[in-house]
Alanine dehydrogenase (Cognatishimia activa), 373 residues
Amino acid sequence: MKIGCPTEIKPQEFRVGMTPDAAREAVNHGHSVVIQKGAGAGAGFADADYEAAGAALLDTAEEIFATADMIVKVKEPQAVERKMLREGQLLFTYLHLAPDPDQTRDLLDSGCTAIAYETVTDANGGLPLLAPMSEVAGRLAPQVGAWTLQKANGGRGVLMGGVPGVAPAKVVVIGGGVVGTHAARIAAGMGADVTVLDRSLNRLKYLDDVFGNVFKNQYSTAGATAELVNTADMVIGAVLIPGAAAPKLVSRAQLSDMKPGAALVDVAIDQGGCFETSRATTHADPVYEVDGIMHYCVANMPGAVARTSTQALGNATLPFLLNLADKGWKQACDDDPHLLNGLNVHAGKLTYFAVGKALGIDVLSPQLALKAA
C-alpha cells in the first residue's frame, strides 16, 4: 500500500500524522510512504529524518492525495483537502463529524472510506486513539485556564495555588473521564481547590479510591453543577459522548451568576462544546468574553505541544495503521470489531449512528457496509 501524510493546514496545527519511526515501521512492512516536505517541522521532525526512515518526499498535498491509497492525518480534512479525496481512498484521522455537517457532506460526496480515530474502541470499552490526546488536553486545560485567569488576559486575577493567607482558585471539572482526571490532577498539583463532577457512581468511587483527598468529587446533577459553577474561578468542560455532539451543561443564562472574570475551558469543543456559549477558537486568538466570563475554546489544544502530542498519538495509531496497510481496510475491520467501530463513512454512506442522529442523516450499519464492500 502507498501511505501518504500531508502537512496539516488547520490554523496553528503543528502535529503531523506520521512520525519518522512510524514511516520506518510501514516501510519495513513492505509499504511505500510519501510525506509532504516540511510536514513534520512543527513537531521537530526534519525531512531528512523521514528520508532516513525510507519515506519519499513530495512537494505538495495535491501530489500526496493523488498518489496515496491511504491518507494519514491528525485533524479532520479541511475543505480544500476534502476536494482532493477520491472514491476508494482510505482516510485515517480524527474526524469529529457530529458538529460538522459540511465535512460530513463532503466526505460522503467524495466516495472515500473514512475511519475516525475518536470512535475506534478497545476491549475495555475505551477509546485508545482518543485517549492520548485526551490526556494531553486534560493536562493542558488547567495550564491554559491559569493563563486565562490572569488579569491582563481578562480574567479574575486569581492565582491557582493562592499564597499563605489567601485561598487558592476554585476549579470545577465537569466529567471524570480521561480528560477530567488528568485536568484534576494537574489543577490540584498547582494547588487549586478542585472538584470533579460525574454521573457515574463507579467512576466517582474509582476517583476516590485512587486519588483520595488530592481532589474532591461529587455526583453531577443540574443543581449541583449550577451551585459549583457559580462559585468557581475556573470550569473545565471534559464531557464526551463518543462520536456524538457534546451536551450543553452550562447555559448562557448561568453566566450572569458566575464570578466576573471566571474562566471556562471547553475541552469538548471538537464535538461542539459543552457550554452553550462555546465557539471554536485558535491558538493565535484563543480567548473571548461573553457576559464577563472568559472562554478558552481552542479546537486543537494538543497542537500547542506538538512534539509530545505527535509521539503520543503515533504510539497509539501505529498498530492500527499497520493492520490497515497490511490487510486492507476491509480485512482489517473484519478481523477487528474495535477498528470497525471507527468506520464513519464508506462509499457515500454514513456508518456511525451517533453522527447520523446528530445530523439527521440515514445511517448504514458498519457491518452491512463491510459486507457490501
In short: The chain has a mean pLDDT of 96. The first strand starts at residue 2 and ends at 5.
